[in-house]
Amino acid sequence: MNETGQKSTQPAGDARAAVASGIVSQFSAAGVGLVGSLPDNWIAQVIDACNETPDLRHVPVNREESAVGLCSGAFFGGTRSLALMGASGVMTIIYAVTKISYTYEVPLPIVATLRGAPGDGHKHHVSNGLYLLPVLDAIDMTYVIVDRAEKLGEIATAIEHSYLISRPVCILLTRGLLRGEA
Question: Would residue 1 count as lying in a domain?
Answer without folding.
Answer: no
